Amino acid sequence: MTAGKKAAMLLGIGGLLMAVGSLLEFASVPGQSLSGLDTDDGKLYLGTGIVLAIFAGVIWSVAASTTRRVIGVLATLASLFMLYAAIIDITDIPEGVSVGIGLYVVLVGTILASVGSIWSLAAKSDAGAPMAPPPPPAA
Questions:
Q1: At a CB cut-off of 8 Å and minimum separation 6, what does 39 contact?
Q2: Listed residue (80, 85, 75) closest to 52, CA to CA
């Protein structure tokens, strides 16, 4: 498996974790819990996670290096922004409210997606490898 495919796999796993984490509990107080879909950020994590998983599929399957680069840049920007948002969401919880497992799953997903998307930009494309010259004609 090439480095580009490994990077796409990591990006896809990160995107799926973001989507799954947004369905789980984000925060709770005694007697009440808040799922990710109850918040605007949770819906954003869900949508972005799905888009990043789709981007991973494109990076995995497309041979054109320009397309892979453009998708890689978009995935990097989206995943790094979501990483920043997840850190803010976890650190900005008010006193007396506990952070739910969903935010931590989203955080792990954003980290994996960020690493995978950056790695996909650094990975060399197999499609652009030059072919070996033909052998000299027999005399």
A1: 26
A2: 75
For 37-93, write each residue's pLDDT tens digit.
Answer: 999 999 999 999 999 999 999 999 987 888 889 999 999 999 999 999 999 999 998
Hey, how many other C-beta atoms are within 10 angstroms of the C-beta on 112?
23
User: Among 40, 22, 5, which residue's Cα sits nearest to residue 108?
Assistant: 22
> Which residues on neighbouring strands pair with residue 28, listed in sequence order?
33, 98
What 3-state DSSP class applies to 124? coil
Instruction: Output phi, psi for 57, to 5 deg.
Output: -65, -40
Q: What is the mean pLDDT of residues 121-129?
A: 67
Name the phi and psi angles at 111, rounded to 5.
Answer: -65, -45
Query: Under DSSP, is residue 63 helix (H, G, I), strand (E, B) or coil?
Result: coil
Specify the 3-state DSSP secondary structure of 25.
strand
pLDDT at residue 34 above 70? yes
